[in-house]
Design brief:
- The complex is a heterodimer.
- In chain A, the strands form two sheets. Chain A has a six-stranded parallel beta sheet. In chain A, strands 1-2 form a two-stranded antiparallel ribbon.
- Chain A folds into two domains: 291 residues, no CATH class; 187 residues, TPP-binding domain (Rossmann fold), CATH 3.40.50.1220.
- The longest helix of chain A is centred in the first third of the chain and has 30 residues.
- By secondary structure, chain A is α/β, with parallel strands linked by helices.
- Chain A contains 17 helices and eight strands.
- In chain A, helix 4 runs parallel beside helix 8 and helix 14 runs parallel beside helix 17.
- In chain A, strand 4, helix 15 and strand 5 form a beta-alpha-beta unit.
- In chain B, helix 2 packs antiparallel against helix 5 and helix 3 runs antiparallel to helix 5.
- By secondary structure, chain B is mainly α.
- Chain B is flat.
- Chain B has a domain of 67 residues.
- The chains are: A alpha/beta, B mainly alpha.
- Chains A and B meet through helix 1, helix 2, helix 3, helix 4 and helix 8 of A and helix 1, helix 2, helix 3 and helix 5 of B.
């Protein structure tokens, strides 16, 4: 038997198997573009992952030595593999099955963090093994640069995701409000520059692993600083960005190992997260730099004062009975839910009302703002859980032109995304795309009080003539409307 | 493999990613995210790789093996949890017909 041929055959086989798994990922994501084919797309992605996982055992575990004409296998530490995979799989399945749909953002955040953490650890251990077997001067510069990037991006992803998880989960130890202090921007920039300098030092002086872990430590602190200064309204942007980073960290680790499937899968995810980040930024009309380095600004005493003058004598309060009567004569009703609907656990009641309206021949639709939930597409998942058909869920661009033909718009648990102040130039949310609910014949806003949303500014919608304010708990109010509507 | 090949693959994959993702409707953005999140757990390949090394504990000490085991543990949670949770969500989108 010719060992050279065997060696080449193994290389080709491994390369083709990795290519196959990459093809599965690509077709999987392609299938995710339609609700009908999406479950299959997810299964294809999982299949691709399984192929890549098995291939890794052939790739790294079976060694064909051409010189000594021997085939060896390195499965000495198989028990570590079994333990880590077994434990990881059990925890993964357990948390994925147990999580509520409202808790999806923090679940995705922490999974992102684990991905980033895994990438930085793999790059670090591989680097140390290289230092054991290769003399430092023989280490290729691109490999070293990739190692630095993997450590830095991986660490930012890891710590940033843990902080995001804490904020979304409402853990007491991490403040939900943005933490800002004098000079925090300068500190972040200084740390980033310091990490880049450290990276250059490591690339020019390979040989000790210490530089690498110093970069990881710095990246961890930087991740904490970046996310701790960001408020709840900006979480959709942060999660998307961290999603992108976890992909980039995997791609960087791919360069460290010279592994093609890590590079392909990592860059697909990197691109995906970046697109979602841009969509979220656009939905709030803010730049990424503004989200990362500055909170909502310009909320001063004068604007909170104007809330009183804006609302005084102009608020029309209504009752569930009156809303039911308005709905009785409506032919088209659009619900505009915000995260407040999920917090009030009102989704089931909303579904019930929508079904009753439809039974009476009313046309019902749901207007979903891109940042209605806590992550991209979150509100759609929350409504899908209530078995509301996805063709009734309209995005901003398709629902807005229909408000003029809408008899009743029901805003529940949303505020900033329906604030007409966004159309004015000098507003804190100027230019942010909003739901044009004020163009509907009647607009019903279900809300506990007149308190402002995340942006901290008053909402002129509440003072409009065609706006009816229904004060109270979202779930209770909708349930009352359902009851009154049935009795009519 | 030479560096330029790998960079070419990276750039092509990024372009492909942009093409694929822009076609996903907003309705499916959350499952897309958890699914792509699971795909970023591809690092599992690297974690398996470093644990199948020729080196032994007596040569490099026990620490790298602990770190590699943690990496494999993290990556497995990421992969398994991500695909399972996406599947759970996507089943809900089937909805009533």
């Amino acid at each position: 038997m010719d060992y050279q041929t065997l060696f080449d055959a193994k290389e080709v086989l491994v390369g083709l198997l990795y290519l196959l798994s990459a093809i599965f990922f690509i077709i999987g994501i392609k299938n995710l573009s339609k609700p009908k084919t999406a479950p299959r797309g997810n299964m294809l992605g999982a299949t691709g992952m399984f192929i890549a996982f098995l291939t890794a055992f052939i790739d790294f575990g079976i060694h064909i030595d051409v010189n000594s004409e021997a085939i060896t296998a390195t499965f000495d530490y198989w028990y570590i593999l079994v333990a880590a995979i077994g434990l990881g799989a059990v925890i993964g399945v357990w948390s994925a099955i147990g999580v509520k749909m409202t808790g999806m953002p923090q679940m995705v955040a922490i999974f992102n963090g684990f991905g980033g953490g895994a990438s930085l650890l793999v790059a670090g251990v591989f680097y140390q093994f290289e230092l054991e077997t290769t003399s430092a001067s023989e280490l290729a510069i691109p490999m070293l640069v990739a190692t630095v990037l993997s450590g830095l991006i991986g660490a930012i992803t890891f710590s940033g995701s843990l902080i995001a998880y804490g904020k979304l989960q409402g853990l007491k130890i991490i403040p939900g409000k943005p933490v800002n202090f004098r000079g925090d921007l300068a500190l972040k920039l200084l740390m980033l520059v310091a990490m880049i300098v450290l990276g250059v030092v490591m690339v020019l002086n390979p040989g000790t692993i210490g530089w690498y872990w110093l970069i990881v430590l710095g990246g961890t602190l930087l991740g904490v600083l970046l996310v701790v200064g960001i408020g709840g309204a900006d979480m959709p942007v942060v999660i998307s960005l961290l999603n992108s980073y976890s992909g980039l960290a995997a791609a960087a680790t791919g360069f460290v190992l010279g592994n093609v499937v890590l590079i392909i899968a990592g860059s697909l995810v990197g691109a995906s997260g970046l697109i979602l980040t841009m969509i979220m930024c656009k939905a709030m009309n803010r730049s990424l730099v503004n989200v990362l380095f500055g909170g909502f600004g310009g909320v001063d005493a004068t604007s909170s004062e104007s809330a009183d003058t804006m609302y005084e004598g102009k608020i029309t309060q209504t009752s569930s009975e009156e809303v039911a009567m308005v709905l009785e004569s409506a032919r088209r009703v659009v619900f505009v839910p915000g995260y407040g609907m999920a917090v009030a656990r009102a989704a089931t009641a909303v579904r019930q009302l929508s079904e009753d309206l439809e039974k009476a021949g009313v046309e019902v639709a749901f207007g979903i703002h891109p940042v209605a939930g806590r992550m991209p597409g979150h509100m759609n998942v929350l409504l899908a859980e209530e078995s509301i058909p996805y063709d009734k869920l309209l995005d901003l661009d398709s629902v807005n032109p229909t408000f003029r033909q809408t008899d009743v718009a029901i805003v529940i648990g949303a505020n900033d995304v329906v604030n007409p102040a966004a159309r004015e130039e000098n507003s804190a949310i100027a230019g942010m795309p909003i739901m044009d609910v004020d163009q509907a014949q009647t607009c019903v806003v279900i809300k506990r009080s007149l308190s402002p949303g995340f942006a901290g500014i008053p909402n002129p919608l509440f003072a409009k003539d065609n706006t009816l304010m229904l004060f109270g708990d979202g779930k209770k109010m909708i349930e009352e409307i359902v009851k009154e509507y049935k009795e009519l | 493999m030479t560096l330029i090949y790998l960079i070419t693959i990276l750039v092509m994959a990024v372009f492909l990613g942009f093409e694929l993702i822009t076609k996903v409707p907003a309705t499916l953005h959350t499952p897309l995210m958890s699914g792509s999140n699971a795909i970023s757990g591809i690092t599992i390949v690297g974690a398996v790789g470093v644990l199948l090394t020729h080196l032994s504990v007596s040569e490099v000490g026990v620490l790298p093996f602990i770190l590699a085991a943690v990496a494999l543990f993290f990556a497995t949670i990421n992969v398994v949890g991500g695909f399972v949770v996406s599947n759970r969500m996507l089943q809900k989108f089937k909805g009533r017909k």
